[in-house]
Design a protein that fits this description.
Blueprint lengths: L32 H27 L10 H19 L1 E5 L5 E5 L1 H11 L2 H19 L3 H26 L15 H30 L3 H32 L8 H22 L9 H18 L2 E9 L2 H8 L1 H18 L5 E6 L2 E9 L2 H16 L2 E3 L2 E3 L3 E8 L6 H17 L4 E3 L10 H13 L5 E10 L4 E13 L3 E3 L1 H11 L2 H21 L5 E5 L2 H4 L4 H11 L7 E6 H6 L1 H13 L3 E7 L6 H6 L4 E4 L12 H15 L3 E4 L5 H10 L3 E2 L10 H9 L17 E4 L6 E4 L3
Parallel strand pairs: 8-9, 11-13, 13-14, 14-15, 15-16, 16-17, 17-18
Antiparallel strand pairs: 1-2, 3-5, 3-8, 4-5, 6-7, 10-11, 10-18, 11-12, 19-20
Helix pairs in contact: 1-5, 1-6, 2-3, 2-4, 3-4, 3-5, 3-6, 3-7, 4-5, 5-6, 6-7, 10-11, 11-12, 14-15, 18-20
Length: 731
């Protein structure tokens, strides 16, 4: 038996229904919400009026009261008690995911009372059960009135069918059930079917009207999910009537199959929930998140509203896990899940996708700014310290956002776009980031076409290196270079690293490119050494290699192959890459330094790492990011950062390199501050190995500002393969 309470308390608010629309019931039934609400209220009030009037007429019928023997009243009393108890112990029925409906066990005993009569007793018993169920829930009075009315109509309809088929008077007194009479047997079965049909039709209609769905679609969905359990309960109605009439003491024997039905349904719901929920946090898992996203997306497409999907990832969670242990990591994940779930907007879904990655589904979003406001709030909730494992932990997160239909019209595309935005949020060190098509370096058709071409670029000699000079500010001499990779694409021309390195990192092609750079740059160092040119070579390292414990040994083999002293090589790593996995990064850096290779932290100042922490990494060199140096105003906050970094770095025994020097004034100011090495367009743009050799051989490695040379607008060299002069841009 189904009721408004069992179906999610549709009438509790009159508008807000807890029941998720059943699968398949997605076709709109009505137009504007105003008309939908009017139709909903009209239907509810009509059922209440018709139900109470019908019940009053039936209860006023003569010939059904005070004619039963005491033993018959005893039977009816037992059946009434069983009906009330059954109403209070509903059977859970899974609708998929964690959407659960309930069918009450009282169906069996209600059908039995309809068969035995009188009909007034069946109506009173059913209404009593509804009232007793209403008292602890304290739902809206209209909910109670609707349920009383729809049950009264259900009982009356079932009794009418039974009376019509069996020949028993509709309002007559207690009648002995005779299953040996084929008419009674068929009548009992049809009465049970009628009971279910009317009950589900009345409830499905109110659900459909409230949600603006097709009534038939909701009815079909109910049949799909409840048919088997309902059939069992209906078939037991005539059995209960026969048993209680023959020997009422045998009635408890019916409890065994009813308990079995209840328990099997409960286990099915539990299994469904376990399959669709994360075992650690209790949140929805990836599968359930997708299941909820699909109807939400369909709803957004019908209404014209937007929908947002957020991907949330904790920063440096692996470091906490490795340092404090997985138990502390689990405690942290549980607390993070709780905070996100409690902070989510009404109607949103939070899921744990795995590890420290979460997802949030925001239906009915007016525009992107609302999703960004939610992201800001969630990040503020996460930024508060956590207590786990007896310690206080400071955790921050990054969020990627995608919006439908702006960024896609299916769940897979939206999740992919949110994941790309999350990557950009981490790369740009922003707290949240909304998807932009230009950030998708892998999945656009143009970029995908580059993958196969990049695979053969190394073998076909399309990659080459340029070298940007590094100037010793104290002596005014070129003391080193930084190797910068370029791609001479057959049809696209010279491609900057920004155009293909992200693609290489996301597809695993960064490894052969990195080892190409290592091999060519060390070979170049040997060639310069043979000509009496002694300079260091700096190579940029991807975050993927910084966590590769075999990297130092491979570097050592390459140094030996080209007979280059380890102290001539400088490995540059970004501040953010170091903090991605500090434990493994420290191990790789320490191993590199043990073989004599210098390590520099590039782009310093753009992350959140302190100098004291970097000193623990046992590095040699610190490169101040160009954003603090270019067009430097000596009184600005950037100038204060640069001055402080140089002083603190020297106190920690680090060599300081300043990038982005583009004028003589900046160069002179950094020299006065005691900065060790300078790099930038004013000193020299990226150039070929031949140009570097000429620069050194001609003795023009002196400080360019000392002879008054302006920074060139552009430099260039002739490509060996094409003979064309090509401009060399910033490295």
């Amino acid at each position: 038996m189904s009721s408004v309470a069992a179906q999610g308390s549709v009438l509790n608010t009159g508008l807000g229904m807890a029941l998720t629309p059943p699968p398949g019931a997605t076709r709109p039934l009505m137009g504007p919400p105003g008309r939908r609400i009017t139709g909903f209220n009209l239907y509810v009030h009509s059922v209440i009026a018709v139900g109470f009037i019908s019940a009053a007429i039936v209860l006023a019928q003569p010939g059904q009261w005070l004619q039963e023997a005491p033993s018959q009243w005893q039977v009816l009393g037992i059946m009434t008690i069983a009906l009330v108890v059954g109403e209070l112990r509903p059977i859970p029925i899974s609708r998929g995911g964690d959407n659960t409906d309930y069918i009450t066990i009282s169906t069996t005993f209600a059908v039995a009372l309809v068969i035995l009569g009188p009909v007034g007793v069946a109506i009173i018993a059913q209404c009593l059960a509804v009232v007793l169920d209403y008292v602890p829930n304290r739902s809206r009075p209209r909910n109670l009135l609707f349920n009383v009315s729809q049950y009264a109509l259900t009982v009356i309809a079932a009794r009418g069918v039974y009376s019509l088929v069996s020949g028993v008077p509709f309002a007559g007194p207690y009648e002995v059930y005779q299953p040996s009479d084929v008419r009674c047997l068929v009548a009992g079965f049809l009465a049970g079917l009628t009971f279910l049909a009317v009950n589900h039709a009345l409830i499905s209609t109110v659900v459909a009207l409230q949600r603006g769905l097709a009534v038939w679609g909701v009815i079909v969905a109910d049949i799909k999910f409840q048919s088997l359990t309902s059939a069992v309960l209906v078939s037991m109605g005539p059995m209960a009537a026969l048993v209680v009439e023959t020997q009422w003491l045998m009635l408890p024997l019916l409890g065994a199959p009813l308990i079995a039905v209840y328990r099997s349904a409960e286990l099915a719901v539990d299994r469904e929930r376990q399959a669709k929920h994360d075992s650690l946090t209790g949140l929805a898992n990836r599968e359930l998140f997708r299941e909820r996203s699909i109807p939400a997306l369909h709803q957004a497409q019908r209404t014209g509203q937007k929908l947002a999907i957020m991907m949330i990832d904790l920063d440096h969670f692996k470091n906490i896990n490795d340092t404090l242990g997985h138990q502390v990591g689990d405690e942290l994940i549980i607390e993070v899940a709780r905070r996100i779930d409690e902070a989510k907007p009404v109607g949103a879904t939070v899921a744990r996708l795995g590890g420290d990655e979460f997802a949030v589904l925001l239906p009915d979003v007016p525009d992107q700014s609302v999703a960004e406001d939610v992201a800001t709030y969630l990040l503020s909730v996460l930024s508060k310290s956590f207590a786990a494992g007896g310690v206080r932990l400071a955790v921050q997160g990054s969020i990627g956002i995608s919006i439908a239909p702006d960024h896609g019209d299916d769940v897979h595309t939206l999740m992919k776009c949110a994941d790309i935005a999350l990557y950009e949020a981490k790369r740009e060190r922003a707290r949240y980031f909304a998807y932009r098509p230009e950030d998708d370096v892998v999945n656009t058709p143009q970029r995908l076409s580059l993958v196969a071409e990049l695979l053969s670029a190394v073998d076909e000699g399309q990659l080459f290196l340029e070298y940007q000079p590094k100037l010793d500010l104290a002596s005014g001499r070129i003391v080193g270079v930084e190797a910068l990779v370029r791609w001479n694409h057959p049809t696209r021309g010279i491609m900057r690293p920004d155009d293909f390195i992200p693609l290489a990192e996301s597809t695993g092609l960064i490894s052969p490119i990195t080892w190409f750079v290592v091999d060519r740059s060390l070979r170049q160092v040997r060639e310069w050494n043979a000509r009496g040119i002694d300079m260091s070579m700096a190579i940029n390292l991807s975050v993927r290699h910084l966590t590769d414990m075999s990297l130092p040994d491979r570097i050592a083999i390459a140094l030996s192959r080209w007979n280059v002293a380890p102290d001539r090589l400088v490995i540059e790593v970004t501040e953010s890459s170091v903090m991605t996995d500090p434990k493994r990064s420290i191990g790789v850096i320490q191993h590199l330094r043990r073989i004599g290779v210098s390590v520099a932290v590039d782009d310093y100042g753009t992350g959140q790492t302190s100098l004291a922490y970097l000193r623990r990494l046992d590095i040699d060199e610190l490169k101040i990011d160009r954003s603090f140096v270019m067009k430097l105003d000596k009184g600005s906050s950037d100038a204060i950062i640069v001055r402080s970094t140089i002083e603190l770095g020297h106190n920690l025994g680090l060599r300081i390199v300043a990038e982005g020097i583009e004028d003589a004034e900046t160069l002179a100011w950094l020299t006065d501050l005691g900065c060790d090495i300078g790099q930038g367009y004013f000193i020299g743009r990226p150039m070929s190995a031949e140009a570097v050799g000429v620069l050194i051989a001609d003795g023009t490695s002196a400080l360019p500002g000392s002879v008054g040379d302006p920074a060139p607008a552009a430099t260039g060299h002739r490509d060996e393969a094409t003979g064309r002069l090509r401009l060399v841009e910033r490295g």
